[in-house]
Design goal:
Two copies of one chain form a homodimer. By secondary structure, chain A is of the alpha/beta class. Chain A has 18 helices and 16 strands. Helices cover 34% and strands 23% of the residues of chain A.
Chain lengths: 447, 447
Amino acid sequence: MKTILILGAGLSASSMIRYLLKHADSYNWNLRIVDQDKSLIEKKINGHKRALALDFNALDPNERKPEIDRADLVISMLPARFHVEVAKDCIELKKDLITPSYISPEMRALHEDAVSKGIIIMNEIGVDPGIDHMSAMKIIHEIRDKGGEVTSFKSFCGGLIAPESDNNPWHYKFTWNPRNVVLAGQGGAASFIHNGEYKYIPYNRLFDRLDRIDIAEFGKFEGYPNRDSLSYRSTYGLEQIPTLYRGTLRRPNYCKGFHVFAELGMTDDSYKLFQSENITPRAFLNAFLPYRKGISVEEKFKIFLREDRMYLYDQFEWLGIFEKDESFGFPNASPAQLLEKLLVRKMSLEDNDKDMLVMYHEFEYKLEGVNRKIVSSMLNIGEDEVYTAMSNTVGLPVAICAKMILTGQIHEKGVTLPVNKPVYKPILEELKAFNITFEEHESILED
Amino acid sequence: MKTILILGAGLSASSMIRYLLKHADSYNWNLRIVDQDKSLIEKKINGHKRALALDFNALDPNERKPEIDRADLVISMLPARFHVEVAKDCIELKKDLITPSYISPEMRALHEDAVSKGIIIMNEIGVDPGIDHMSAMKIIHEIRDKGGEVTSFKSFCGGLIAPESDNNPWHYKFTWNPRNVVLAGQGGAASFIHNGEYKYIPYNRLFDRLDRIDIAEFGKFEGYPNRDSLSYRSTYGLEQIPTLYRGTLRRPNYCKGFHVFAELGMTDDSYKLFQSENITPRAFLNAFLPYRKGISVEEKFKIFLREDRMYLYDQFEWLGIFEKDESFGFPNASPAQLLEKLLVRKMSLEDNDKDMLVMYHEFEYKLEGVNRKIVSSMLNIGEDEVYTAMSNTVGLPVAICAKMILTGQIHEKGVTLPVNKPVYKPILEELKAFNITFEEHESILED
C-alpha cells in the first residue's frame, strides 16, 4: 500500500484527485488530502473509501511533518510561495514531491540536497508551465534525433472561454485569478530574441504588439509577449537559438481593448485613488481622461480612442464603463482594484459555462540545408465547472507523474521539470485519452 | 559671535557660502564647513578668515554631534535622506536647523519635539521647493487679504539652459543630476485636481500631456505634470480649491522627444539588458523596435515615430542614436543607465555655459463676483559655472533665512517651511537684489 499526501484541494486539484481515486484500488493507493476548507475535499472525494479529508494546518511545519512522514509521495497544490518549505521537509524525511509551479531560485538551490537523499522534486508539471515543456521537448528531441537544428521557436498558451460559452464582445471570461489577469505583464519589459537580436517590449506597448495566430478549426487568436522568454533557452537546451518567443493567447479585440486600459493608467496597482469608495465606473474612466469643458465622458473617450480604434468602443460600453448610478463602494482602492471589480461584474463564468485551454508551438528548423516548419497545437475544452480545461491540463499531468513515480517508472533524482523523454513521453501519450492532444503539421519554408 | 555649521559644500552651496561670508564680518559670524571633499570647501571660501574647512565624517553621529554642539545654527546641504538624523541631533542639542529639502514624514514627526526644545527646523527653502512656496503664498495671502477666493492655481518650475547657451535641438542641458532627469516621473501616476475632478496621468502619457506656456520676453515653454500636486492643498491652505496643478517646465520639443524614449521603454531602470557592455547606441534603439527584415534602424524608427512626429527625427539623429561604431561599454546596465550615458555625451554643460531657472504661477480667483487672473513669473540666469541659477535660487533663500534666524527675526518654532509672511516677505524682498524677481500681471477673466 502507498500513501499519497495532497496539500491543497482547490480548483486545479479536482481532475488530479479524480484520476488518482480512479486508480486507487488497482494500485493500492490511499489519499490523505488536506485543505483549509474540508468540505471542498469531501465534495471532491465523494465518500471514496481510499481518500481521507484532513483539516490540519498545512502551513505549520509541526502539523505538516508527521503527515509527510507517513506518506510515500507528497503533491503540493499550495500557493507557489509555500513549496520550498514543503520541499525542505520532504528532503529531511526522504519523500518524493510534485508541484505544478515554476522552480524558484530557492527551490533550485535544494537540488544537491534532494539528489543526496535520493528523492525527486518534480516541478512545472501542470500547464504553462508543464504541458508546454513536454510537448515542445518532444518536437525539439525529434528534430535533433534526425540531425536538424532548431532556428526558431515561438510558443503561445491561453486559458480562455470555450466557443459555446463565448457570448461577450471581449471574448474572454475569468477562468483563473482575475487579479493576476489585470496585473499581467507588469514589472519590467517583456524580453525575447529575434534573429539573434535581443528585443524588449515595455508594458505600455505589451498589449499592442500582437502576433496573429490562426488555428485551423478553432479560429483566430492574438498573442502578446510574456515577460521572460529568454530563460527558456537553458530550460530547453536551445542556448544558441536565434529566435525564441513566448506569448499569451487571447481572442481578437481583447488585447487591443486591454491596451486601452493600460494606456489610460487603469491597470496601475501602485497607488490609491482619492475617495475611491465614491467612484462610479464613469468617474473612474473620467479620472484618466483630460478635462474638457462641456464634453461628455463618451465623447472624451472617443477622442482618446481615435478613429482607428473606434471599433473597440462597443466593447467598453458593454462593460458598463459609462454607468454613473452606482459607485464601486471600494475604499482605498488602486486603479487595478477598481478595474478588476469592473471586469469581474461582467466577465465571470456563468452556470454551465465551459472553459478552454489553447496551446500553440511554431518551430523552424534546418535539416540537410532545407528550412522546415512544424506547427503543433492543442485545444482542450472543459467538461463542466469543476472538471475545467484548466483543472484537467494542470491536474492530469501531475496525477500521471504521481503514478509513474509510485510505480518506479521515473529514475531521475533532484529538483527537476518534465523535459526528459522518459518523463514526458508516457505522460503526453496518456493525456491523449483525455482529449489533450497535439495536432502537428510540417511544411517546407520558402526562402 | 555666532557659529554656523554647514554640512555639505556641493554645487548648490556655492552661492549660500558666498552670501554668508560676505556678511560674516558685519554680523560677527564664523562658518565651519564640512564636506568629504575638503578642497571643494577651500575653493569656495578662498582663504576667508571667517571660514574653516573641516573634513570629519558628517554621517557619523559621533563626529557630527560635537560640531553641532559648538554651533548656533546648522545648515544641512547633505543628501535629503540624512536630514532626519541631523535634525534629531539638533533637537537633542537645542540648535536651529535649515535644509532646502522636502519634509519627509519622519521629519514631520519631529515637530512636537522641536517645539518643546524651542528650536526651528526650517525645510523646503531652496527652489522647488522653496521660492515656489514663498512667491505663491505671497499672492495667495494678498488675494485673501482683499477678500478674494482662489479657484485655480497652476504652477511650473524648470532648471534649464540659458538662451545664450542653448545650442542643441533638445534645448536642454543637464544642470542637475542626470539620473534624476532620466527617471523623472516614474513610480505611480501624476495626480492633480481640475474643476473639482481628480485626474491621474500614468507615466506612459506624462510627457505627452503638456501645457504650453508663453512667458513674454523669454519665449515658449512646455510643462509636464509633477507626480504629486494634491499635497500642496494643505501646504498652501487651499483645501477646497477646485483646480490645482504643478508641473515641470521644458523648452518645446524636449517633452515630445522624451516621450518617445519612455514609449520605447528606454527609461526603464527596473531590469538589466543582456550583454549591455556590447550595446552601441544603434543597437540600443533597435532593441526596442520590432524586428523587420531588410529595413534599416533609421527606417524602423521613422515607422515608430509616425508622420505626425517626424519633426522630432533630427533631434534623435543629433544625439548620435544611430551610431554603430562604439559600444557604451557599460556592463550590467539598465535601459535608463544607457539612456543617461547617451544623453550626457551630448547634453552636458560646456565651458562658459550658463543655466537658467524659470518659475511660472497662474492664479484664478473670484472677488466681488468677478473672476480674475494673476500670472507671476520669474527667470534667473546663472552667473557662471559655479554661481549657477540653480546655486543662486537654492542657496540664497537658505542663506537669507540663516541671517534672519541668527538675528532673531523669525519667531516660529518646530518643523516648518516658508509659507508664513514673516519668513517669505523679507526673503522675497532681498532676493530681488540678486535678480530673482517675479513679474506679476493681473487681468479680468472673460466668462
